[in-house]
Amino acid sequence: MKINIDENITLELIAAQHATGLYAVIEGNRTHFAEFLAWGDNAESLENFNNYIRNCELQYQQGNDINFVILLDEKPVGKMGLHYINTYNKSAEIGYWLGKKEEGKGIITKSCKGLISYGFTELGLNRIEIKAAESNVRSLAIPKKLNFTKEGILRQADLVNGKFLDLVLYSMLNEEWKS
């Protein structure tokens, strides 16, 4: 499955073929990612990352998560997905990461728009959330640009590299997105 965002950006359903390229992005950005992302053992080696991708594929088959590789000019530059899909409540959460050299180009904002449209139109979701660390200024800018509603702070909700982070919770409802 692919979601074409524009002439240069595509979201492609994550698969084994993406492991090496995505892992290279992680390897080249470990310091950049370390402040806000807890990789656990998922990214300690290419073998572990391949296992992570197999788990992503399983989560997709079970309808729990949909993970995409962000491709810029057909080259992996990051990852994005709809997580914690709740079919009963028709809700999900968007998560994303992007290599440092690709930041500031509108890639995540544009990709979120495509993923949000997919979630509301194709999956029939009613609510999509974005959570970001209170100190992650770049990530917090995304839901603001997309006119999400800030709902509050989830205190010490994310443990990243031994440090608890407060998360800001934003949401968008289908009816709001349509208008």
From TrEMBL:
Pfam families: Acetyltransf_3. The keyword Secreted does not apply. Residues 23-166 form the N-acetyltransferase domain. One of its GO terms (molecular function) is protein N-terminal-serine acetyltransferase activity. The keyword Transferase applies. InterPro entries: Acyl_CoA_acyltransferase, GNAT_dom, Ribosomal_N-acetyltransferase. Keywords: Transferase. GO terms for cellular component: cytoplasm. This is Ribosomal-protein-serine acetyltransferase. It comes from Pedobacter steynii. The lineage of its organism: Bacteria, Pseudomonadati, Bacteroidota, Sphingobacteriia, Sphingobacteriales.
